[in-house]
Design brief:
Elements: H1 3-10, H2 23-39, E1 47-51, H3 59-62, E2 67-72, H4 75-79, E3 86-88, E4 101-107, H5 116-126, E5 127-134, H6 141-149, H7 161-170
Parallel strand pairs: 1-2, 1-4, 2-3, 4-5
């Protein structure tokens, strides 16, 4: 990842992010997991790798329903993640054998990496069957404004469902489902709009 991204994800203000169990985070995560479960069967014995797991927005909830491992290259972020199996690692060089996980998942990661194709290829390599990619949708006005105002988020401006479908298809992966959902952003919804 680019140098400014590394500094961005190691800054001390991340310690003030909403916790993985915060109601806004829960409302951001659970509808997506519920949609995923309509398409892909997930059981307790299912192995899942959360790539770019951060402080555990998704891995915290996945860990309740399957065998979850998380990786992130930010020591600050991963130190806040409550799951047991977590490692500091680059998404562009996953230190796992081929076909190590039933599902490989990432959320809001690709717009932060330098080589999107490399990350998708690595996710495909370590997955037995499924990769799941979730990214901000620049067609959402709130995402557009946030991404335009923050240089570390600016690459998200090119992300839309169509853009992501093209990236995935060009990697040789078969898309079995693609959808756009949600307007809640886990760290930027002001408390007065969702006062928990």
């Amino acid at each position: 990842m680019e140098i400014y991204q590394k500094k961005y994800w190691e800054r001390k203000s991340l310690l003030l992010r909403r916790d993985h169990s915060h109601p806004v985070v829960k409302e951001f995560v659970l509808p997506k997991i519920n949609e995923i479960r309509k398409i892909i069967p997930i059981k307790m014995e299912t192995t899942l790798l959360d790539v770019g797991c951060g402080n555990g927005f998704f891995s915290y909830y996945f860990d309740k329903i399957c065998d979850t491992t998380g990786i992130d290259y930010s020591e600050t972020m991963i130190s806040l993640n409550p799951i047991a199996k977590k490692y500091v690692m680059s998404a562009e060089d996953l230190k796992f054998s081929d076909n190590s996980f039933d599902i490989v998942f990432c959320n809001s990661l690709l717009h932060h990496v330098e080589n999107i194709n490399k990350v998708i290829d690595e996710m495909k390599r370590v997955s037995k069957k499924y990769i799941i990619i979730s990214e901000p949708n620049a067609l959402n006005p709130l995402i557009f404004i946030f991404s335009a105002l923050n240089k570390e988020e600016r690459k998200a401006l090119k992300f839309s469902l169509r853009f992501l479908e093209k990236k995935i298809s060009s990697s040789g992966a078969e898309i079995i489902s693609a959808f756009s959902c949600g307007i809640i952003t886990p760290n930027k919804i002001p408390p007065y709009l969702y006062p928990y």
